[in-house]
Design brief:
The complex is a heterodimer.
Chain A (H helix, E strand, L loop, with lengths): L1 H12 L4 H9 L1 H9 L7 H10 L11 H23 L11 H9 L22 H21 L3 H10 L3 H25 L1
Helix pairs in contact in A: 4-5, 8-9
Chain B lengths: L1 H38 L5 H8 L5 H23 L20 H17 L3 H9 L5 H18 L6
Helix pairs in contact in B: 1-5, 5-6
Classes of the chains: A mainly alpha, B mainly alpha.
């Protein structure tokens, strides 16, 4: 009983070990299928929001977003609330990254490792610095453009698509990593 | 005749009720997903850097086990022909490959953004909920990116 209490406390305070985190993420695929035959994915919410707010007569945004996308907007609103709730219990986030990563990032000039993202870059006061602008504004734009072009993001392609053995998703995921490696090893050293 | 009339009236009401309950279910599942993204730390810029630098197996173990669990449950659902809670057959539509350009090029552009921002779309919303408020700008920027794709779409190779 004490053991159970200890593991429950660890579950609530986090962080979860990979063998809890991964399978829990995977379970969202059957959960959404069973609730309403929905394919697990987040990025289509961006398209639905564009369609709802500023379709501008573009074909890509001319469809019944309420019928096809309302579920996804509710799901995404939930993600926001879930993040808020999780941030209010357990230990404050202190990501225990590996020593080589800490060393590499220190060389790039990152010294504050508290929080979920480097505070010196992901802050309102840093938004108009080159690092802040490229990380937040340019990065965000590329995420939104790329996911729409590729027809899915990490959830839709890497989880749902790979799980269904879809070749398009495998190509997309290889692209995700190609882009990520280019940014990590060629762009970040220039930027920081 | 009278009973027929009542069933006709009840059917749309029942469907509306189902739809409302389903929306609540998606919202609750979203909350669970937001908690999961936070507690698994996959929403952290630091974890994404660690992944792209191949300095910890953690993210790969998470992604691989998520795909395995998702694949096993999707295969099981297909095999037993499971229906949704409102009785609709579950279908998983295949993606069309076409020339594959959109997946390779779009995927690479997405990957650049993923490493720069340190977050993909799910984590963007979870980070905003976690109080990293400047991420709201990244979300607005992602919306601008998606809109720009919609605008350029007729000219882009797919």
């Amino acid at each position: 009983m004490d053991k159970l209490a200890v593991s429950m406390a660890a579950f609530v305070s986090g962080p979860w070990p990979w063998y809890v985190a991964g399978p829990v993420i995977g379970l969202f695929v059957p959960a959404l299928l069973i609730v309403g035959d929905k394919l697990f994915g987040v990025s289509s919410s961006l398209r639905h929001m564009c369609s709802a707010v500023f379709p501008a007569k573009l074909d890509y945004f001319r469809y019944d977003w309420k019928r096809t996308g309302l579920w996804n907007l509710f799901f995404v609103a939930g993600i926001l609330v879930g993040g808020f709730l999780a941030s209010h219990w357990g230990n404050p986030p202190n990501i225990a990254i590996s020593e080589p990563t800490r060393l590499a990032l220190t060389k790039l000039g990152i010294h504050d490792f508290s929080g979920l993202a480097p505070r010196q870059i992901f802050a309102w006061s840093a938004l108009l610095t080159l690092k802040g602008f490229v990380s937040v504004v340019v990065g965000g734009f590329l995420v939104g453009f790329g996911t729409a072009y590729a027809g899915g993001c990490t959830s839709g392609h890497a989880i749902s698509g790979l799980a269904d053995l879809q070749l398009p998703s495998l190509i997309a995921v290889l692209g995700f990593f190609a882009g990520g490696l280019i940014a990590t090893f060629f762009i970040l050293p220039l930027l920081f | 005749m009278a009973t027929e009339l009542t069933t006709h009236q009840q059917a749309p009401d029942q469907a509306r009720g189902h739809a409302r309950i389903a929306l609540l279910a998606y919202f609750l599942l979203g909350i669970c997903f937001g908690i999961t993204l936070t507690k698994s730390e996959v929403l952290s810029w630091f974890r994404i850097q660690e992944m792209f630098r191949f300095q910890s197996p953690r993210m790969y173990e998470i992604i691989a086990s998520a795909v395995l669990v998702a694949a096993a449950s999707a295969a099981f659902i297909k095999k037993i022909g499971l229906k949704t809670i409102s009785g609709v057959p579950i279908t998983i539509p295949p993606k069309t490959l076409g020339h594959g350009v959109r997946y390779a090029v779009g995927g690479t552009i997405f990957g650049l953004g993923w490493a720069l921002t340190g977050a993909c779309p799910g984590p963007l919303f979870a980070l905003a909920g976690n109080g990293v408020t400047v991420i709201i700008v990244a979300i607005a920027s992602a919306l601008a990116g998606t809109w720009t794709y919609g605008w350029l779409r007729p000219k882009l190779p797919h």
